[in-house]
Amino acid sequence: MNYAALYQRSIDDPEGFWGEQAQALDWFRPPQQVLGRDDQGLHRWFQGGELNMAHLALDHHVNQGRGGQTAIIHDSPATGTQQRYTYTELRDAVATCAGALRELGVAKGDRVVLYMPMIPEAVIGMLACARLGAIHAVVFGGFSPHELAVRIDDAAPRVILTAGCGMEFTRVIPYKPLVDEAISQARHKPEAVVVKARPQADAELQPGRDHDWDALMAGASPADPVPVDATHPLYILHTSGTTGKPKGVLRDTGGYAVALNFSMGAVYDLHPGEVFWTASDVGWVVGHSYIVYAPLIRGCTSVVYEGKPVKTPDAGAFWRVIAEHGVKTFFTAPTAFRAVKKEDPDARHMADHDLSCLKALFLAGERLDPPTYDWLKRITGGRPVIDHWWQTETGWPIAANPLGIEPQPEKSGSATFPAPGYQVEILAPGGERLGRGEQGHIAIRLPLPPGCLPTLWNDDARFRSSYLERFPGYYDTSDGGYIDEDGYLFVMGRVDDVINVAGHRLSTGEMEEIIGSHEAVAECAVVGIADELKGEMPVGFVVLKDGAEVDHGTLETDLVEMVRRNIGAFACLRSVAIVQKLPKTRSGKVLRKSIRQLSSQAEVPVPPTIDDPSSLDEIRDAMHEQGIGQHKG
Ligand code: COA
Ligand code: AMP
Predict the structure, then answer these.
(1) Do the Cβ atoms of 251 and 453 come closer than 8 Å?
(2) Is the Cα dihedral 110, 114, 118, 120 positive or negative?
(3) Alpha carbon distance 504, 239 (integer Å)
(4) Which residue among 167, 168, 387 has the greatest number of ligand 1 atoms within 8 angstroms of its CB, and so is best to mutate?
């Protein structure tokens, strides 16, 4: 197949293109209109069509005679266990869980929050919501009770699904006390909490509100899939914006199903019966799309991994899982491979495993840095190593090497070409289109293809102001980059205050709000600076209130603890420097970009709008003193 022709058709005739793709799915009622607008004027795909995501992911395959095929393999080096579910077994478990939720009062349109580790019940719980037409909001298990409470208040769930604990390497993290704490902090109180017991930790159940997962399932009768409109929300997934209030990215059902099914063939080149492994977490968009929904809609086998790239038990963990389960395509974040490379630079562990099954590697979550790309190319003997770019908002890749359409020559550092449906352009700050090789804002011309967010949960206004207003007629990605002479897209990083730490998206604005609440702090700036392992690491610069008496060590310990407590340990704020003044423009805007540049460059241009150039020297000195950044000069 010819990529260029297929891509052009998707842009010239989106309705024809996606209308055809939609025919691959088992709808209860076919769409009446491929692309339309809702009463708010926002684009909507496949209105009038009726379907059910759990039906597509499970019942459909069982009905087609593939019920005996493995749907998921749970592989947990963290607990030393493995478990397989065939499509029939998974369908039955999901139907029972949906029945149990229904008995707890959950109906179409109700919300259910999941705070789960990487166990089969996380997948079962998500699909059970989908079966009822209930809207799930999964919260990553690393988030603090405070962050969980914020999401509970936003989603207002009837029920919370959780488990006795999560595992961090071999450390047991009891979840129930975190959930209890979150509920006590939240204004909204769920009616029920269902807890999957795990042998590693006891969970105390509150009578009248809490239920043991297994006991509840034992008494439940199975529920059938509930047909929903294509535009019905499948889930809310909160993601970091530039302030402390996360954005509730909304996902519809029909557009998402069509896009995921298409991407499994076009991007990942995966077919029914093949094994796909995405080493991420169900708490992130990558987990929603490529651990749960896409592989199952496609009829593949999905590996659900509860472990780490290293130390569970060693840097050979990825190779062991790939060989043991016959993984054809493996997808993870570059930071995970940097962790492997650090411990096993010559990839000696690979020799212990037969990796002939492995056909391609996909990387996302942050830019695949050229040194890691080169290393992966070398150790995998030249197999495709594909950097692909996407966001929580889009739900599937915006740009990728289209392996299943027509593989393109790889270029290190590039996410290759836009996926069909995405009209990607580079814009100047004023909105003019830039030419090849010119760096600017990456924007996507509307309409976005199916699968991308139609709006934010309960907040059309924020959707418009965050994404549509800056460049009229476009979706603003908040990423910057350029398209080279050959049309390859290079995504170079965020242009807003969002940073990427070990593949996790975090808001520096939120960290500033937390640090700013300390009694000794007058003002502060948090910037992400380059880190060899995690891509970026947040560093705080604070100005103390006049007369504040606190020594640096105590303040740093306090602030690090406050960020851990309010967001979670994975936020990784480790260093805080005290300065007399933050570099600002004359109008009072903090010059974060200059601070970032100081961490990696000896010479940083002094912005003409700066109020006091000596403030930059002070930041430079503070970085030297504390060994912050890679600047040695
Ligand atoms: N629950 C509780 N705590 C968690 C957590 C979770 N799910 N995930 C991370 N944390 C904690 C860690 O235990 C650690 O705590 P500590 O400071 O007390 O030691 C802290 O958050 C930082 O964790 P992390 O940034 O993950 O660093 P690490 O050194 O433990 O591991 C990697 C480094 C590279 C192995 C790990 O970050 C990794 O696997 N990253 C891949 C991420 C990924 O797949 N992203 C996909 C998005 S597409
Ligand atoms: P998230 O919403 O958590 O998936 O994070 C999305 C952000 O991660 C994007 O806006 C980018 O800044 C970054 N990102 C993800 N994948 C890539 C990639 N392949 N190349 C560059 N940046 C990426």
Answers:
(1) yes
(2) negative
(3) 10
(4) 168
Q: Answer yes or no: are the C-beta atoms of 446 and 424 closer than 8 Å.
A: no
Rounded CA-CA distance 146/632 in Å is 38
Residues near 362 by Cβ (< 8 Å), separated by ≥ 6? 268, 329, 330, 331, 332, 386, 388, 400
Which atom of ligand 1 has the smallest separation from the CA of 285? 48
| Residues 359 and 328 sit within 8 Å (Cβ to Cβ) | yes
Q: Does the beta carbon of 564 sit less than 6 angstroms from any atom of ligand 1?
A: no
Q: Report which secondary-structure segment, H or E, holds 235.
A: strand 233-239
DSSP, residue by residue, 41-91: S-EEEEET-EE-HHIIIIIHHHHTT-TTSEEEEEEETTTTEEEEEEHHHHH
Residues in a beta bridge with 275:
301
Q: Give the span between the Cα atoms of 618 and 507, in whole angstroms.
A: 25
Q: Summarize pLDDT for 578-592 with one digit per residue, the tens.
A: 999 999 999 898 999
Looking at the DSSP bridge assignments, the partners of residue 362 are 331, 386
Helix (H) or strand (E) holding 92: helix 87-103
In the DSSP assignment, the letter for residue 276 is E
Residue the block writes with tokens 């987990």: 287
Can you give the pLDDT at residue 632? Answer: 42
Q: State residue 529 phi and psi, 5-degree precision.
A: -115, 155
Question: 283: Cβ below 6 Å to ligand 1?
Answer: no
Is the CB of residue 505 below 6 angstroms from any atom belonging to ligand 2?
yes
d(CA 148, CA 159) in angstroms, rounded, equals 14
Question: What domains are defined for the chain?
Answer: 3-307+388-482 (3.40.50.12780), 502-631 (3.30.300.30)
Q: Is 286 in the pocket of ligand 1 (CB under 6 A)?
A: yes
- pLDDT single digits (tens) 305-324: 999 999 999 999 999 999 99
Within 10 angstroms of residue 54's Cβ, the number of other Cβ atoms is 27
If one counts every other C-beta atom within 10 angstroms of the C-beta of residue 577, the result is 18
Name the pLDDT band for 630 (thresholds 50, 70, 90): low
579: Cβ contacts below 8 Å, ≥ 6 apart: 541, 542, 543, 615, 618, 619, 622
Across residues 93-114, what is the average pLDDT?
98
571 alpha carbon to ligand 1 midpoint, in Å?
Answer: 9
| Residue 160: C-alpha distances to residues 110, 188, 193, 251, 366 (Å) | 12, 12, 5, 19, 31
CA 389 – ligand 2 centroid, Å: 6
What average pLDDT does this structure show over 21-30? Answer: 98
Residue 155: per-residue pLDDT: 98
Q: What is the pLDDT of residues 332-342, one digit of tens each?
A: 999 999 999 99
> What pLDDT is recorded for position 603?
82
Q: Is 415 in the pocket of ligand 2 (CB under 6 A)?
A: yes
Ligand 2 contact, 369 CB (< 6 A): no
Written as one letter, the residue type at 40 is Q
CB 578 within 8 A of CB 542: yes
